[in-house]
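Summary for the funding panel

The consortium committed to producing paired sequence-structure records for every protein in the target list. Below we show the first two records in order, beginning with the earlier of the two.
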Amino acid sequence: MAINDASSEAHPTTNGTTNDTNKASSPPSDAAPKTNGTAQTPTNANDEPSDASLFADLERESAEWNKDAEIDRIMHSFKLNAYAVLGILPGIPSSSIKALYRKKSLLIHPDKTTNPSAPDAFDRLQKAHTTLLDDKAREQLDEAIADARMLVMREQKWTVDSEELKGEEFLHKLWPEKAKQVLVDNELRRRRQAKGQMQEEGRQQRKDDEELAERKRKREEEEKWDKGREGRIDKWRDFKVPGLKNGGDGTGDKKKKKKLKVLG
C-alpha cells in the first residue's frame, strides 16, 4: 500500500498534463465555421447583408444607371449637331473636347455595358468627336450655329446685350431648335448640290464616252482604209493601163488604120 501511494505521489501531474494537452488541441466553441472557398456576402448577426455590401450594390446600380442615361441622351440628341451629341455648348477648346470624349467613351463603351444601344451611341460619339477636331467641319458647324443664334435674336428682337441670351430658355430650347432647323436646311442643300453634281458628272461622263466611241470609230475606219490601199491601187492601174495586165506593151490591141490613097 505504501508503494502505491508513493507512485501516486511521484507522478502527481500526469493526468493534469494530458488534460491540458487535449484542451489545447480541441477547437474553441466560438471558432468561425469552415467554408468551401466561395466568396460570401458579408452579413450581420441577423444573417442580413452588411452596410458595406449594400453600398457596393448601390454603387454598381448607380454606375449602370449613369451609363444608360448617357446612352439614352446621345441617342435622342440631334446627330447633325456634334456639340449636342457630346452635350456641350460651342466655344469649348479642343483639349477639353478630347478629355470629355475620353470620359464619355469609357462610360458607354459597348464592352463595359449590356445596353443594346451602346454600339450606336458609341459610334455617334466618335463621329461627333471627329467632326469637332476637323477644322473645316467645325468651322461650318460653328457658322450654322451662329446663324441660328442671329435668327433667334432677330425673331425675338433682342440685341447682343440682352439678358435673355443667358437664360435657360434660349440656351436649351430656342437656340438648339433653331440650330437644328438651320443644320437640316444646310444638309438638304448639300444633298441637292451633291445630286446635281453627280448628274452633271454623269452627263459629262456620257459626253466623254460618246467622244471616245467616235474617235474609236474614226480610227477603225482609217485603219480599214489603209489596209485596202494596195487593192485600190491595183484596181486603178488595171483600169488606167489595161495592156499591162496581159503582158503587153501598154499600147493596147488597137490596129493602126491605113490611110487611103486618093485616085486620080
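The next record, for a separate protein in the list, is shown here:
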Amino acid sequence: MSLSGVSPWLRGQRKTELLELAAAAGLENYERLRKAELEIALDEFLREDENEVVLSSIPLFDQFYHDRSGLPVKRDSVSASGPVASDREGKGIRMRTRRVTRAAEEMGETIAIAVQQTPQRTRSLIQSLSLPPSPAVVVDAIDSSTAELRMKVGDVWERAAIVERAESLRELLSSVVSIEALVLAVEAFGLSSEILPFKYAFTLPTVAGLQSSGSSVWLPDLFLLLSSSFWAPLMLWVSTSLFAPLLLAYFFNLTLKTRGGHMPSRTHGLTPPAYQFDPLTFNVAKALVTYLIYIQDARLWGFIGAESVDVVRTAVPGGPSGILIGASLGAISSIYEAVLRK
C-alpha cells in the first residue's frame, strides 16, 4: 500500500500516538518501524475484516472507521439535511451495535472452547488455588512470619545462655593462673603423645545395613604405664615445670608484703596475700630450671638421666625454647596484673 492510500486520520497522528494505537490494536513487531511504515502497517491491520469486527467497537478507533464509511464522528444536533442525516446516524449506530455483539459472541465462544480443552486436572488445580486478595496481605503474612522466627531465635538464644557462658569463660581466662594452666596443658599434651603413644587395637566389622567399611581403632598403649620409659620423663617434666617452681614461688612470695610494709598474720587484721604462690617467682624459677636442665645439661650429681632429658626436650612443643616462651608469657602477665592492682 502506498502512503497516499493511508487514512488521513492516521497520517495526522504523531509517532507516539501511532505507537499507542498499535499497542491498543494488538499489532506486532511495530517498535522499530518509522512513522510512514507504521502508518501503512497500522492502516492495513485495521482494515482486515477480523480485526475490524473487534476494533470497530473500541472508541479509540471510531475516527478511523468513520472516515472509511464517510460518517462524522459525532453530531450535537441534526443538520440541515434533516431526516437523511438522522437515518445515516441510526444506521451507523446499528452497525456498531451488531459489531460489538458479534465480537462478544466470538469472544465467549473462544473462552468456552478453551475451558473445554483445558484438562480436568489443570482446572481442578486452578480452582483449588487460594490466591491472596491483595499484595498487602502477602506483605503482612511475611512480616508476621519474620517476627515469629525472630522470637523463636531469641528464645533459643536466651535458653542457651550464650552470653552468660561467654562472660563466665572470659572471666575465667582473664587471670594469670589461667595463662599458666594453658601453658602447662600444651606442654603436657606434647609430652603425653611421646611417652604414651596410640597403638592399633582392633578393626571394627563391616555393617552392610549402614554401608560402612571396617575401620581400625587405635588406643593408648596402657602397658607403658608399667615401664620406666613412661614415668621417668613424666616425673622429670613435672619436677622442672611444676614442683620446683611452685616450691620456690611459695617461699619467695613477693605478694605477702602489704602496703604498710607488714606481713599478714592472724593477729593483725591485714589483707591476705593475692596468691599463695607468687606467679612472677614461679615463672622465673621455671625459666631458670629449664635453662639449667635442658640447655646446660645439668644432671644434679647423676639424679637426672640423659635419656629422660632427651625425651622431654623433643616431646614438649618448641623444646626448651617453647618452655622459656611460656615462662616469659606468664612473667609478663603477672607483672601486668600487679601493675593493675596498684
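Regarding this second record: Strands lie at 198-203, 216-220. The first strand starts at residue 198 and ends at 203.
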